[in-house]
């Protein structure tokens, strides 16, 4: 038993010696193929060092990445020889491998796959420079090595003494000798660079605009690339840090300050991470054997890349936001940051949400203060609601508006309009209406929406809560505003008063005013006193049912004399105006009252024409003229008189037909219908904007349908020509009947003595009966000619007016044409005129 053990030990020693000889010969051949060492010396220190290094590698536990299949490697070697054109070598290798694989038992190689793999690697590396395979084998060796060949086997050691780790440690020392800078130093410099500080070997390079390893040290390209990649974090840090420093020296506004504070908080977390990493960087980087079973609290470049993965994402995002927001402020800045929050990466999304909550807090505080208190706390012009210094009557229309450039994208335009209107309503109640009930409405709105009136009630990401708060506040505050206007300031009663007095809806008042003021208005405008007209107005009020109206309404009704020239009459300058006081002057602005004035002047002109026709009718009554009064006149004069009277009556009927139907159209189709629609919209209005829109629609409807719009200038001129002709007809009719009355009086007293002191040229009646008859005939003939001329002009103008009615856009005007030409009289007359 002992002899067998001794024999086994001898055999193992023999095998080990054979393997050492084979390795010695292999290293010698590899070095001899190097042109720099054609004859290596086996006894030189360099050769011995290389040999020891080869032994360590062979004894290590390093395994290739290919599958350990001897047949597959043999087949691969055979195919390679065949593809290289070495068919004979391929056949010889196949034969040798068959013998090698079949040999088993004592003296045979157990791990045949390892040997074949080694040969394959050696054959591949044989084509390269041996300095690439063994970089330290560059010393010259002598050629004193004999050609000793030893046959033996190659054994792979189990490495019981951790020789593999020793080899790695020596290899690491060799790498350190080649490189001038250790990895620990580079890690420390990278940490400095990430704080924006130049290290010993990693410095900021302005040419590449980034941190990099200095050129004068010998460092592998892979290491330089990794250092530059890691140092990108320092470049981003400098950009963010410089933005914060610059912003502290400028007035960036509250939103900008909140943005800088959020960035500073992120940088504080970043500083904490760097402190932890610097602490770990103090620990030396262990070798493979130490890291396998020792502590992991050390820092290498690769570990640093893992640590920096998440901070780099955040820092890149902050750098992008800094570049984007450098020239922005307020709501525009918040909107730009919000656009980057729409991201699918949960890390980016969570980071942006945290950042936006801080950034948007001043903006949401402005919204809360504006919606619930009506206060605009915007010293830096960051809010999307902008105020302007205006008069009280323009507070609603021009005092506040939206600045769309400051409207963040997470607030919709419709929501912004509601926010604007809610704050305007509070300020309107407080400034114009002197009302404080809005505070209770705001508190109720906050309670109904589940928020609080204190600061910080709503933040970013709570858009639904914001919309609910704005909706509740708008509903209650707008209702409060309308209630104050309707009940306290009697808006509806004032609108009705304007309709009754400015739009001439109070018939008895208008008729009495026309009767008493008519003679005075026929005088030149320069001779008329506004105080005298105000007395007539007061008399008309006392004589009509207007006296029972509210005194506040009657006190607002005043006479207004429009600017006039030397040739104007009272009819041209007289008008009524209605005084609008705060807060009603928000609705009845100067432009609105000017439209009412235009409508009043038009309706007053129409009433004057109607009044003129009524006056003619009173003069033309049949009991004023009897046929017995003209018994002594010649028959020819009688025929002329009857013809003139008949012509006057027919023309009056035509004019009265037109004026009656046109006035019916204005009073019922225009004024009453528009008022009914306005009353319905006034009841349905939910806020002051709806009320203003309804009133503007009501007034524009009246102006458009009354032919006072810009598009109705042509037909309006034609209508005014008809009015002038009717007034001319009134003047001629008065002259006719005055002459007839005088003739009637003179013919009843033919023998009465004339007053001799009277001028003979003062009356053509004084010349005797013959002269009376002659002058009567001439007068009637002249009046008949004038009547014919007026009738002809009237027919032509009326035809022109009727021809323009179908061309109007309003359906009501087309219906007016139907009413005026119900019997198609004018249509047939127009057709005959064209045929002739």
On the 0 to 100 scale, the average pLDDT is 81
Backbone shape: elongated
How many beta-strand elements? 6
Describe the largest sheet: 2 strands, antiparallel
Percentage of residues in strands = under 5%
- Overall structural class, as computed from helix and strand content, comes to mainly alpha
Low-confidence stretches: 127-160, 288-295, 751-766
Number of helices: 32
Quote the distance from N terminus to C terminus.
157 Å
Taking all Cα atoms into account, the compactness measure Rg is: 56 Å
Overview of this protein structure:
Its main location: cytoplasm. The chain has 836 residues and is mainly α. 65% of the residues lie in helices and 3% in strands. It is built from 32 helices and 6 strands. The chain has a two-stranded antiparallel ribbon. A hairpin with a 4-residue loop joins β1 and β2. It is elongated and about 190 Å long. Residues 127-160, 288-295 and 751-766 have low confidence and may be disordered.
Question: What is the secondary structure topology, with strand pairs?
Answer:
Blueprint lengths: L1 H31 L12 H15 L10 H14 L3 H16 L9 H14 L4 H4 L29 H16 L4 H11 L8 E4 L4 E4 L7 H28 L4 H29 L6 H6 L7 H7 L1 H17 L4 H10 L6 H14 L1 H13 L11 E3 L7 H4 L1 E3 L10 H20 L5 H11 L14 H26 L2 H11 L5 H15 L8 H14 L7 H6 E5 L8 H4 E5 L11 H30 L15 H50 L3 H18 L7 H36 L20 H36 L6 H10 L4 H11 L1
Antiparallel strand pairs: 1-2, 3-4, 5-6
